Amino acid sequence: MKKVIFITGTDTGVGKTYFSKLLVEYFKNKGFKTGYFKPVETGCNPECEDAKKLSEITGQSIDEVVLYKFRNPAAPLVAEREEGIKINIEKIKEYLERLKKKYDVLIVEGAGGIMVPITQINGGIYTYLDFVKETKLPVIIVSRANLGTINHTVLTVNALKNINAEIEAVILNQASKNPDLAEKTNPQIIKEMTGIEKIIKIFKNQKNLENF
Mind giving me the DSSP string for 100-117? Predict the structure, then answer.
């Protein structure tokens, strides 16, 4: 089995790293050699917390897990301008290819949402949407389960559809056991509006993905 999945969110703080952790553990428990890659992590002050959490599970070194580290908790483009470290997209893509060969399953995590700017190339701003378009990675979208998620999720799906990206699933994260009306109906409405069949609720404190 060779599988690479890109994890994006509908916003910052929606639980991309939490879901990535569940996904890594799921594939590892299935017996696959599983790696994690976060091309850019910001807010590493002093440690890159996301990379640290996942490297402890995969057994990778921090330097293998995250390629560009920035202190400031901001979009990669903002952080690189502030700290004077230029992000090289070709270097990221070459590194990605090496990791793809090394692991049976590779979980690649973005930063924030799909339109987050990574760097500037030839006068234009390069986003994670551009990265997905060029690498052709299948995508899982992590969004909130509660009120307000329809707008963010549908916009993210539409942006990805515009580049003909393969969307594997939408994850409604931090779902509650006793949902209100909005949370109850969000999965069906998102399915109707996007055509995405795989809408999965991840409940608070969920420990595995055996039903994934």
Answer: HHH-SEEEEEEEEETT-E
Mean pLDDT taken over the chain: 95
Exposed, middle or buried, 52 (CB in 10 Å: 0-12/13-18/19+)? Answer: middle
Instruction: Note the residue count of the chain.
Output: 212
> Where exactly are the structural domains of the chain?
3-203
- How far apart are the C-alpha atoms of 43 and 9, rounded to whole Å? 17
Q: What residues are annotated to the active site?
A: 38
The confidence score (pLDDT) of residue 96 equals 98
Judge residue 98's burial from the number of C-beta atoms within 10 Å of its C-beta, 0-12 exposed, 13-18 middle, 19 or more buried. exposed
Among the CATH numbers 3.20.20.210, 3.40.50.300, 1.10.260.40, 3.40.50.1370, which is that of 3-203?
3.40.50.300
Is the pLDDT confidence value at 207 over 70? Answer: yes
The predicted-structure confidence for 136-146, as pLDDT tens digits, reads as follows 999 999 999 99
> The whole model's pTM is what?
0.95
